[in-house]
């Protein structure tokens, strides 16, 4: 029974331990600093999205509800924490460095509660009703790359209350990231890991088959290299494999299999985890 539990645990751990997957020269940086916030009040003037009059500087993650006093009279009711919902606006100005030229630039929101709408330099990017899942927008077609300011606006509407069985908060309550990629890039959430383990002559043998979706943003042609590196719990490289593939379509699939000799099993006493990095070269 103990061996069976360890077998299942290793499969689950290997399946979900892909900590960082990135293509060569991909870069992700925190985008939490330098945001302005305005809490909308229908009894006051219209929202000033030009000069940002009466906006306040905030640090993300940010929840505007917690800055209010508790009251059982709010539409959220005590069941949702007795704090108000409402409508809030966020804004940020930023300039792109020269190194971002010819790069694809994305903004990743880990979570906004809720009904968020996003604009970049006046261009509407979309609406996300759900408040708990992450999402991404491609900023590339609308960015100013001449050293002048870019402006991003986010509207958050949590005014329809009550709408939950617990306290939800309101605003950009999780991290925000700015991510740059090359034209040939690993698709977001585009890596699938399939682990296997066998016992032979009293020794454990493991293998990890990785399927990687490669996006070809500019319809380039050529031969590329996909390299996978596996690290153990001590961040020591324990295995690697690289495979060449021909880039033909807008989306390509590259598969590699890595052998692991005597993989370290997970247990409460020894919570061994593996980490994989994937590169496109």
From TrEMBL:
<comment type="similarity">
    <text>Belongs to the glycosyl hydrolase 2 family.</text>
</comment>
<protein>
    <submittedName>
        <fullName>Glycoside hydrolase family 2</fullName>
    </submittedName>
</protein>
<dbReference type="InterPro" id="IPR051913">
    <property type="entry name" value="GH2_Domain-Containing"/>
</dbReference>
<keyword id="KW-0378">Hydrolase</keyword>
<dbReference type="InterPro" id="IPR006102">
    <property type="entry name" value="Ig-like_GH2"/>
</dbReference>
<keyword id="KW-0326">Glycosidase</keyword>
<dbReference type="InterPro" id="IPR006104">
    <property type="entry name" value="Glyco_hydro_2_N"/>
</dbReference>
<dbReference type="Pfam" id="PF02837">
    <property type="entry name" value="Glyco_hydro_2_N"/>
</dbReference>
<dbReference type="InterPro" id="IPR036156">
    <property type="entry name" value="Beta-gal/glucu_dom_sf"/>
</dbReference>
<dbReference type="InterPro" id="IPR013783">
    <property type="entry name" value="Ig-like_fold"/>
</dbReference>
<dbReference type="InterPro" id="IPR008979">
    <property type="entry name" value="Galactose-bd-like_sf"/>
</dbReference>
<feature type="domain" description="Glycosyl hydrolases family 2 sugar binding">
    <location>
        <begin position="43"/>
        <end position="180"/>
    </location>
</feature>
<feature type="domain" description="Glycoside hydrolase family 2 immunoglobulin-like beta-sandwich">
    <location>
        <begin position="192"/>
        <end position="279"/>
    </location>
</feature>
<dbReference type="GO" id="GO:0005975">
    <property type="term" value="P:carbohydrate metabolic process"/>
</dbReference>
<dbReference type="GO" id="GO:0004553">
    <property type="term" value="F:hydrolase activity, hydrolyzing O-glycosyl compounds"/>
</dbReference>
<dbReference type="Pfam" id="PF00703">
    <property type="entry name" value="Glyco_hydro_2"/>
</dbReference>
């Amino acid at each position: 029974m103990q061996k069976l539990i360890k077998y299942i645990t290793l499969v689950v751990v290997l399946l979900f331990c892909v900590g960082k997957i990135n293509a060569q020269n991909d870069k992700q940086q925190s985008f939490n600093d330098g945001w302005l916030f305005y809490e909308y009040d229908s009894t006051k003037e219209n929202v000033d999205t030009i000069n940002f009059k009466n906006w306040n500087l905030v640090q993300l993650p940010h929840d505007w509800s917690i800055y209010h006093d508790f009251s059982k009279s709010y539409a959220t009711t005590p069941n949702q924490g007795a704090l108000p919902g409402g409508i809030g606006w966020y804004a940020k100005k930023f300039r792109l460095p020269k190194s971002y030229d010819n790069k694809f630039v994305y903004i990743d929101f880990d979570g906004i509660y809720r009904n968020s709408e996003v604009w970049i330099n006046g261009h509407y990017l979309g609406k996300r009703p759900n408040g708990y899942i992450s999402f991404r927008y491609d900023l590339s077609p609308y960015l100013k790359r001449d050293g002048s300011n870019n402006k991003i606006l986010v509207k958050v509407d949590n005014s329809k209350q009550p709408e939950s069985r617990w306290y939800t908060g309101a605003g950009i309550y999780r991290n925000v990231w700015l991510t740059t990629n090359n034209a040939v890039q690993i698709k977001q959430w585009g890596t699938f890991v399939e682990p296997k383990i066998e016992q032979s002559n009293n020794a454990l043998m493991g293998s990890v088959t990785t399927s990687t979706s490669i996006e070809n943003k500019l319809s380039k042609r050529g031969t590329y290299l996909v390299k996978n590196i596996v690290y153990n719990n001590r961040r020591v490289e324990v295995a690697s494999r690289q495979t060449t593939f021909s880039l033909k379509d807008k989306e390509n699939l590259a598969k590699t299999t890595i052998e692991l000799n005597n993989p370290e099993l997970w247990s409460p006493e020894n919570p061994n985890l593996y980490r994989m990095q994937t590169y496109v070269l």
